[in-house]
């Protein structure tokens, strides 16, 4: 397939006011320029940073919320654009959820894995994140509070976390502690 540029948050999830995160853009090029856009307007440029550029956000405010994407340019020509990344700045009012993995954090290739996000709030919906991916890996609810990975492969490895919110009251939790899944 065509070369793609990826964009993701490290750590993923909504950011609390005053909190920090980093927008990461990566591409297989090595001599170009990364340009970060917010809501369609050019924000920042990083030149000659190899295959990855990091744009930190510190002391986040409501001004930082919005739709971000990256462009990769060589010689002034846009080679590729990333997907969009929706950054949310939210007060954390819910308890921190707990992420667990069954049968455990180290599994053999081909195994069946269930990632479960638990929160002590009856109407909360939780997002499952995999660090390095732009969007939400899965949405978990009271009715379906686990995410199944069947026949895991090496590309399922990584750092997982979850974060919960209530639709009606629009309340958010902090992110859970992270879990590193290793596939042997």
How many whole angstroms does the radius of gyration measure? Answer: 18 Å
User: What is the number of strand segments?
Assistant: 18
By CATH reckoning, the class of the largest domain would read Mainly Beta
Distance between the termini: 27 Å
Overall pLDDT level: 90
Q: From the 3D structure, determine the CATH topology of the largest domain.
A: Immunoglobulin-like
Provide the CATH superfamily of the largest domain: Immunoglobulins
Percentage of residues in DSSP E strands: over 45%
Order of helices and strands: EEEEEEEEEEEEEEEEEE
Quick one: biggest sheet?
7 strands, mixed
Number of domains: 2
The CATH architecture of the largest domain can be given as Sandwich
Number of helices: 0
The SS-based structural class is mainly beta
Helix content: under 10%
Low-confidence runs (pLDDT<50, min 5 residues)? none
What is the general shape? flat
GO biological process, one term: immune response-regulating signaling pathway
InterPro entries: Ig-like_dom, Ig-like_dom_sf, Ig-like_fold, Ig-like_Receptors_ImmuneReg, Ig_sub
Protein name: IGSF1 protein
Organism: Atlantisia rogersi
Q: Which features characterize this protein?
A:
Immunoglobulin-like; Ig-like_dom; 2 domains; 184 residues; seven-stranded mixed beta sheet; five-stranded antiparallel beta sheet; flat
Explain how this protein is built.
The structure is a single chain. The protein has 184 residues and is mostly beta strands. It has two domains: 6-87, Immunoglobulin-like; 92-183, Immunoglobulins (Immunoglobulin-like). The protein is built from no helices and 18 strands. The strands form four sheets. Strands 9, 11, 13, 14, 16, 17 and 18 form a seven-stranded mixed β-sheet that branches. A hairpin with a 2-residue loop joins strand 3 and strand 4 (41-47). Residues 3-86, 95-163 form the Ig-like domain.
